[in-house]
Known about the structure:
alpha/beta; 917 residues; 33% helix
Amino acid sequence: xxxxxxLLCESPTCPExxxxxxxxxxxxxxxxxxxxxCRVEDxxxxxxxxxxxxxxxxxxxxxxxxxxxxxSSELGCRRGMGKGLISSxxxxxxxxxGGKGGPGFFNGHLTEGGEEYGNADLPCELxxxxxxxxxxxxxxxxxxxxxxxxxxPLSRLEIFGSMRxxxxxxxxxMESQNVDVMGGSGxxxxxxxxxxxxxxxxGNNSLLSSSGGHGGQPGGGGGGGGRVHFDWFNIAxxxxxxxxxxxxxxxxxxxxxxxxxxxxxxDGTLTxxxxxxxxxxxxCEECPIGTYKDVNGSSEALCIPCPPEELPHxxxxxxxxxxxxxxxxxxxxxxxxxHMPHCYTPLEDLIYALGGPWLFGLLLSGLxxxxxxxxxxxxxxxxxxxEFSGPTPTPHESQIDHSFxxxxxxxxxxxxxxxxxxxxxxxxxxxMGSNTFNQPWHLPHSPPDEITELVYxxxxxxxxxxxxxxxxxxxxxxxxxxxxSLFAYPFAWSWQQWCRKxxxxxxxxxxxxxxxxxxxxxCRSRALYEGLKVAATPDLMVAYVDFFLGGDEKRPxxxxxxxxxxxxxxxxxxxxxxxxxYTLHSDNLLTSLMGQVVxxxxxxRLVAGLNAQLRTVRQGRLHSTLMPVITWLGTHANYGLxxxxxxxxLAWFQPTASGYYQLGLVVNSVDEVAHTTxxxxxxxxxxxxxxRTNDVCSYRQYVPCLGNSxxxxxxxxxxxxxxxxxxxxxxxxxxNQKDVLFPLSFVLRNTRPVGHQDLVxxxxxxxxxxxxxxxxxxxxxxxxxxxxxxxxxxxxxxxxLLSPLPAGINALFSHGPRRSAGLARVYALWNVTSVVNxxxxxxxxxxxxKIQSTxxxxxxxxxxxxxxxxxxxxxxxxxxxxxxxxxxxxxxxWHIANLExxxxxxxxxxxxxxxxx
Length: 917
């Protein structure tokens, strides 16, 4: 064996039999193998195969099972081309092969190790020895193991055991060394493992090793590592590529360890056949995702990163079978929601299809303006021009009713004859409460003094019980309202109005047809079911019962004249809210009664002017918003009424236990008002009973108000009106009734008209169409995030985002100012309700993109560093939509004011000019 290895130790050429072996296994011209296994198709090694030069030739598969060992370790060259240098009194250097041998160091002398030799891409040399041959301490390098040949590679090599060609360590000869005089020997270098094959499997705990041996003591250098090379046969590329190696074991070519001060040997080489394009490494694997390789070679440096500028936003490089061979690396969008090739959302596809963001915005703005113009023209054609004329003064000769809110015509009034009714009318009894689910209508059980002689007390109490029972709401009606208020407040308002209307119809029908009028003393009234009538203001918040004579009372003092009714209470309709502002509703009966002392034209003018002032009064801010009304009554209303001997004052009436009260007017004669005594003059005579009638201010709060000389008290009338006059001083005693919707009053509020109805309508049309467009774009944007995000924004308040457009169109194209104003308020409610959805969209987007940004910053791989899903402009559409809705709110308020107040002279600061108009 030593003779065979010596033949190869000094030869720098690779034996021909290893490259192109003979078909005849017995013919070896230049190399006599110590072990050759030839012409066995399937070889299984369960034991030990050992030799200096081992060759498996003309075989199909080789399997080394666990416990099997094929080895040529310590059977290489004792000297060789990489023999470690020696020294007469120093330690020996390690042998070199794939890596340089480690220098030895002893007694201050450094002995170099052997040099590298052989070809890393076709290793067929044995390992070289190291040590000190003069002392007999030399070591041997590793041998040579060859699997297959260039012309006949193995189809499959499976190693579950071990294959070794390690160099010899000097530890086996340490005892023969004279460590006091001589240094230790260097380790032998590793041999060669050469594989010609198609596929390789290295099982768990398997080992391929061509390592250098360790140096001996003291100071011996380690042997250099050997060489391992895989010469792959027929490497498939592209879609036909299959991995050639499954490596779960260990491959070693490391250098041996130097002892004491001796140096370690350098590592050997592990190489593979030059890989085609797209593949790299010893085992010709695909280049990492995001890189490409367009040249042949095995170095990982040949896998070049793909150009980042060609990777779209929201895209990631994809795995390609056989590797990428061109700079245009394939990629795919990170989600199916994005569309190739630019990985745009549907929204971005639309934007960039129309020329990009700026051009898209310009086109959208132009389209919205054009559609708004078309909508405005169609609205004027459909609705008519009456509602769009400017609020100019009305000519004196024109027959236009100035009494806002839109007095009912004779055809709309349920009563058949205004004159006859006013002649027999005795008293109007107002319901307490606001006809809501927590404040239903109810009548007081005690009959007022004005009708005590017309009714039977016991029967009246029974009548009141029946009325109050009928006016109360069922629990489920309030529950439905509460649920709708949470998810769709405009529907809740419509439900409440429907319930109010139904309740009023039930009350009216009960009194008209079902009740036998048993409480009335008049036989004729009981027989004809006359004498009682129920009516209500148009907003269905204030109702009243009118009492009439039956005609058989034989009372010359009845019915009383208007002056005999003073002080007379007129309660405002509405609740001081956006949907139901305070209004003075003058029905035909009231107008006829007032006509006894005040001409109808003056009364109409008063009602119109007062309603123009009342529409800006807001619950929750009564102290500031009622003051202009009090001032107007003093400077304008009483300026014209005093000539008729009448004066009106603002007052509150009918407080309930829950703190609810009603506002209205007290009509009195000027003569009686002139005899009113200042409180400071008779404060000592005011009874506790009079103070107790004022439930709006507590007694403790009310007492300090009495000492103010500006406060006047109608001492003879307070008991009759069941309330008190409100002036600039007592206004402070009123409780502001605020509910959970009070903050909305800063956005939705009734304002004074601004005119320019055509321009306001055009702006609303533009904003309405812009709102709808931005809503669609926002939903499309959040759909690109996820279906969950889309549903959250759309359904957090169901229908809120979709309803403003139909509600706005319905309001703009409705006939009649009164109906249009009511529908416009519903449109405003939907607009404000949808703000919740937009705010949720902004919060959701902020959280989503913040988390996404954090995730991208924390990623350390190539793809995360070159790809981010954070969008700096995601907030643009929802923020613009929010601004659009905020601008719509005051525009709709002005539109409603222009519809309801078409006579701008109602706001004249000059009382004379007010009454002249």
